[in-house]
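Teaching assistant here, posting this on the class forum so everyone can see the example we discussed in section. The complex has two components, and the goal was to see what a joint structure prediction looks like when all of them are supplied at once.
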Amino acid sequence: METRTAFHKRLREIQDDVLALGSMVSKATLRSVEALKNRDLGLARQVVADDKKVNQKRFDIEEKCVQLIATQQPMASDLRIIVAVLNIITEMERIGDHAEGIARIAILIGDEPPLKPLIDIPRMAEQAVDMLRRTLDAFVNRDAATARKISAEDDTVDQLYDQVFRELLTFMAEDPRTITRATRLIWVAHNLERSADRVTNICERVVFVVTGKMEEIGASKY
Amino acid sequence: MNINITVPENNTRPAEKCVTKLMVEQINLYYGSFQALRDITLDIPSCAITAIIGPSGCGKSSLLRLFNRMNDLIHGARVEGNIELDGIPVYDSKIDVVELRKRVGMVFQKPNPFPMSVFENVAYGPRRHGVKGRGRLDEIVEQSLHQAALWDEVKDKLGQSGLALSGGQQQRLCIARVLAVEPEVILMDEPCSALDPVATLRIEDLMRSLAEDYTIIIVTHNMQQAARVSDTAAFMMMEPDRAGVLVEYGPTAQLFTNPRDKRTEDYITGRFG
């Protein structure tokens, strides 16, 4: 028979908040790339403005965790969940910052003519967001095996990053006038590559929740 | 020392039901020439569990016993100041103390079932208050045992002695006995100190569900218990002449994460006491 229903209810609410934060930063990532692709400055500004909400949500969750630690003496898996949440929300807040960074680059680029159609960069964003969504599912399901598998998928994002990098390098080598625009796109790709890395950090936390072990899984080549 | 009464995070009761249930104003309590409490002022909200914590001898139980005038039973006890229950002075000479104790029930440190059956333990109070008829009593007993989260465990042994139950069950029986007379406030004096950790957590869970309908005030030595279970917490300590004073009173989460008074901080972090 469950003996700590009130505490466990609050713990579940925190978990729901984590999912909500995940959805906020996923949306921000996709919208930042969409803004870049469509030269939609309004949308880019929206992403920048919304980052404040992401930061606030992270602080709210952190405060709830601190209160639970201070008042409820969480033990064993309950304690691991709270410790994991504190790390996961930090990683997601940073993913939000990467999205904001992309939106700022989109604003910087403004309505300059596109260097090339964006193919791989949106792919990187979709891949990173998809990894994050499935990682949070694995967190909720306490599924370490899936978390390990997702972590390995970071290689795909790294390969896309390589591809984007090489391609833009070619542009710059052929025509130095493209250097400014190409460099900015490299920053965008770099932001996305970092976001996917942060998802792998979240995967490590999922493994920790399940196994109690802190281990590095799938170190990124960057 | 007053706090803003807001619906605590733990609670689902609507805000409009959240009012000052007990008002304590400038209370001084003496046992003969010894001053046990000095200048205690606080408002206890209806929508919450209020915990009173502090080192041994700081007057926690003395304060608790003021709310249903249990101190009247102690020879030489003298109270100055004012306590109001729903705006009515508790220490007014016209107050019917029996009626007051019906409205303000109490659960003690050690489970103390009467040496009679489970059923009779719960039916005792309502009977004394004039409830008649087996049907009505059956109803009250079942409902009270349900509320005390004990029904499923004792429904087949209502005729057995209350003393035959486990410690945790006995304490829940005592809670059912209090609930049977339909109190508004439940005072709990170290209700879990005689129980094992799991029985303790079950009582705490029960307290949380009771907090939806009752005002609960708990005195506990166990700081972690106060942190786990309460919405508002009062920290008391002794002055050099051993009189108990109220040091800090506020939302539990704040008291345990960021207390305002250095003495509270020192006590809850184990730096004194």
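For the discussion questions: Chain A has a mean pLDDT of 95. Residues 8 and 49 of chain A are 34 Å apart (CA to CA). Think about how each of these relates to the inputs above.
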